[in-house]
Design brief:
By secondary structure, this protein is an all-alpha fold. The protein is 82% helix and 0% strand. Helix 2 packs antiparallel against helix 11. The longest helix has 36 residues. The radius of gyration is 21 Å and the shape is globular.
Length: 408
């Protein structure tokens, strides 16, 4: 039953990924329809991400009161209804209104599903869970490309994805009683597993009581900010860069961006197996270097085919970073504050998704969208820098605790 129910959770995470790549793929054809400036996509993205931040910060109290199953169901209903509203939007104001429930529906279910899997399933399922987010994020640009390349418009793409979301709503409703049943059946085993995983954690008896005062936490938060900022920026502005700089059609650009999300999806599926042999730290570092290499391909004056390779390489590089950084939290900072710090990390990650893509839109509207690859390079380099500074600090910290253990 637990294995079957895990598939249901994966389907729920597909529903979380479906809306995330829709706007960026559709915007090159939506923009002239609404006669909106280029940076308006950044404004819509900011509204969606702001709603996600608000709901993720409130997720602890909401999940505690209503349970993960009910919250996931309601959140999926909200996103399905919002996407349906997008498909019938008569004006830009209507898009802004629909963006609010779209963001609010995402934050709580994201926090709830991550916590549920971390609490009741083995560690490698975290990578596979986020792999299924990539499935949703990959499918929606492909669906949109099919509609905008034919006689239909972008509205048909939003309508189709809304229909998929409503189908997932039905599945979640029928399986609602399983959430508490599976949690109760797996609580004992998962508790022992967490104890085994956290045995190498630095215990925090000498640490400050407030999580933000723990040394290294702020470096981790900045790493999350630049990671999600880079990931979201590529998803939102990749199509516009390919259309306006590389000269591709909107449909072809949407297909190419879908391969970026496919890179994330495939990478996370593979990294779920690699976690059995390679540490989270090594996967994070290799992923950051790979993403940086892919972003360099975009800035070089090469044929457009290299841009396709660049997008896929960036996706493959980004793939293991987010789930591995989440899973590394109790190892870095101890299990006492891990849950609180996890919430901070997700909130800062959403903040990066909120602020960094609109910032590129603002800069591009006053210069050119050609600055897109340079922006990604700077973001990826900053993420790598702060992550490596955190690794150096943790090595010194762990060395200090080892010396104290030997002295004792």
């Amino acid at each position: 039953m637990a294995t079957f129910f895990l598939l249901i959770i994966y389907l729920a995470f597909i529903s979380l990924g479906l809306p995330d790549s829709m706007l960026g793929s559709a915007w090159p054809v939506m923009q002239p329809d609404f006669q909106a400036p280029l940076e308006t996509a950044g404004l819509l993205f900011m509204i969606i991400a702001s709603g996600t931040i608000v709901s993720s910060l409130a997720s602890g109290a909401i999940l505690k009161r209503f349970g993960t199953g009910k919250v996931t169901l309601v959140s999926c209903i909200m996103t399905a209804a919002a996407l349906l509203g997008f498909s019938f939007s008569p004006s830009l104001v209507w898009l802004i209104v629909c963006a609010i429930p779209l963001g609010l529906g995402a934050g709580t279910v994201d926090a709830g599903l991550n916590h549920y899997v971390a609490a009741h399933y083995k560690a490698h399922h975290m990578s596979w869970l986020h792999c299924f987010w990539g499935v949703g994020a990959t499918l929606s640009p492909m669906i949109m490309a099919r509609f905008i390349s034919g006689e239909s418009s972008w509205r048909g793409g939003y309508l189709a994805v809304s229909g998929i979301q409503f189908a997932l709503v039905v599945i979640l409703f029928l399986t609602l009683p399983l959430w508490d049943r599976v949690a109760a059946s797996r609580s004992t085993g998962s508790n022992q597993e967490r104890e085994d995983q956290e045995g190498l954690s630095v215990e925090d008896g000498d640490e400050p009581r407030k999580p933000l005062q723990i040394k290294g936490v702020k470096l981790a938060l900045v790493s999350f900010l630049f990671y999600c900022g880079a990931e979201a920026t590529v998803g939102l502005w990749g199509s516009s860069f390919l259309v306006n700089v590389k000269g591709l059609t909107a449909a072809t650009a949407a297909q190419w961006v879908s391969l970026y999300f496919a890179g994330i999806t495939i990478g996370r599926f593979i990294s779920g197996f690699i976690t059995f042999k390679i540490s989270n730290k090594a996967l994070i570092r290799s992923g950051q270097i790979t993403a940086l290499a892919g972003s360099v391909l975009l800035v070089l004056p090469l044929p457009s085919g290299f841009s396709l390779a660049g997008f896929m390489i960036i996706g493959l590089g980004l793939a293991p970073i987010y789930p591995c950084m989440l899973h590394e939290t109790p190892i870095r900072f101890g299990k006492k504050h891990a849950q609180t710090i996890m919430g901070y990390q997700m909130a800062v990650a959403y903040t990066g998704s909120t602020l960094m893509p609109p910032l590129l839109g603002f800069l591009a509207s006053r210069s050119t969208i050609g600055i897109f690859p340079l922006y990604i390079i700077v973001s990826a380099a900053a993420m790598f820098l702060f992550s490596e500074r955190l690794n150096v600090f943790m090595r010194k910290k762990n060395g200090k605790f080892s010396e104290q253990a030997l002295d004792a």
